[in-house]
Amino acid sequence: MLTTLSSEPVRLLLFLVGLLSFVGLNAAYLVWVERKGAGRFQRRPGPTEVGPAGLLQPIADAAKLMSKQLLVPGGVDGALFRVAPLLMMSPALASLAVIPFGPTLAARNINLGLLMIFAFGSLNVMGIMLGGWASRNKYAIMSSARVVSQNIAYEIPMLLVVVTLVMITGTLNLNEIVLQQAGGFWHWNLFRVWVNPLMPVTFLIFFTCMLAETNRAPFDMAEAESELVAGAFTEYSSMGFGVFFMAEYANIVLGCALGTVLFLGGWQSPFGPLSSVVWFLLKMYLLVFSVVWIRWTFPRTQFYGLLNLSWKLLIPVSLVTLVLASAMMKLL
Amino acid sequence: MKGALIEVLQGAKSLAIGLRITLGQFFKPTVTVRYPYQTLKMPARFRGHIELVRDPETGKAKCFVCKLCEKACPSDCITVDGVKPEGAKRKTVTQYRLDFTKCSLCGSCVEACRDGAIRFSREYNLAGTSKEAFVMELFQRLEAEAGADAGSQPGKDKPISAQPAATGTVVVAGTPATAASPVASQPAPGAAATLERQAK
């Protein structure tokens, strides 16, 4: 029995089911967290009616979305229109396969895990872009154009920051990156200022870019309700819209998980012993909370403000950290 | 260069201040009144539709059918009628009809009333399925309230006040009509009356 369970195909199948349900539950319940959080930030209780503390709200929402008609408007590019939500969802699912949730809990511990995440990560932009393009709707096309220029602008500082980090760690294997951060929170990459004094700034840049890449407020230019109705999602109904929504949360989970692994020590305990998956989830959800917190604090930026922030501030600063890190590695 | 740097640092500082303020709000208690379950007590000067006032001594309506309110009403929504009983000095009211579909809550009737016989109620749960529901017979309402007051025995009125519908009507809380009635010491006569009103 034990040997069958630990055999490779069974293990992968279990991870597949586990990851799919992890993403599904997160997407459903982060909506609840978002609404409850929004309520608390505005000093109201948020959803309360469906189930205790509104806990059954996501199920009611899902039932509502599924019972609606899946409308494909006339004149759209049918194939692209249907495939776009999946294109946004699947990269996040695939990328989670290399995230080490615990010391031995990773579906695939491959050496180029970080590279794989970024290779897939840029695909979710394609999802929004194609969805907007296929919709044959002026708002959706404007949203597509915005998403492309926004993601090009934010991919650069994100990658520069990660290159800095990879130069310091010397590996692209995510589990190894976590292992290097063992022995208390002062060993986390976030606080390794003796390697590179700008490490906390690097984390801030990473987090900002993560917000922009996942199209979260204050950078949600792709879905700017006040200007573009719902941006690329304007023509989507029923679960087409639902999958886009779930994909947004899946990408947030992925971004926060990656931030945890790269900067906050992954599954390492902040005090030395007792490392486990609990620490990973705790840190990840702390970052998710910050995402919600930021969304309900800052208003949406204007588009030129968004691009200015990246090209005039984040890219130069991330270049400085890169140069500084390499100089310090050479000299010390 | 120096100016730009200062601008960036100040911007970052203002973002941090914003985050601190929202987090502060996050941990403060909510201010929502969860309406059907919780209700606010209406302020003393809340202007609901008008209602007749009872004389605390006799328990009857104070109104003596001078019809000043009828004349004062700019939208003709009040109709008062009454009779003069044998040996009495004044008339007593037998019908007081308020057509609330036309009333604009201007309060001229309350101002015109010489004896303080009408006042604003604090009823705000006003929803109906027909237009006729808003032609209110205020005298009959007063009588029904009096009947409910007389009929309510101590200890028998609990189940009514426990219902959410009764708690939903805030007019119950501290309505002077209840306070002035001879059986004011009992807890829920007002609630019973309100329930009856809704049944109507």
Q: Specify the structural class of chain A.
A: mainly alpha
How many DSSP helices of chain A?
Answer: 13
| Residue windows where pLDDT falls under 50 for at least 5 positions of chain A | none
In percent, how much strand structure appears in the residues of chain A? Answer: under 5%
- Kindly report the greatest chain-chain contact and the residue count on each side: A-B, 15 and 15 residues
What is the CA-based Rg of chain A, rounded? 20 Å
**Rough outline of chain A:** globular
Give an overview of the whole structure:
The complex is a heterodimer of chains A (332) and B (200). Helix content of chain A is 66%, strand content 0%. The longest helix of chain A is centred in the first third of the chain and has 34 residues, at 8-41. In chain A, 42% of the residues are buried. Chain A is built from 13 helices and no strands. The model of chain A has no long low-confidence stretch (mean pLDDT 85). The termini of chain A are far apart. Chain A is mostly helical and 332 residues long. In chain B, 37% of the residues lie in helices and 12% in strands. In chain B, helix 4 packs across helix 8 (189-199). Chain B is elongated. The relative contact order of chain B is 0.15. In chain B, the strands form two sheets. In chain B, strands 2-3-5 form a three-stranded antiparallel β-sheet. With 200 residues, chain B is α+β, with helices and mostly antiparallel strands. Residues 153-200 of chain B have low confidence and may be disordered. Chain B has eight helices and five strands.
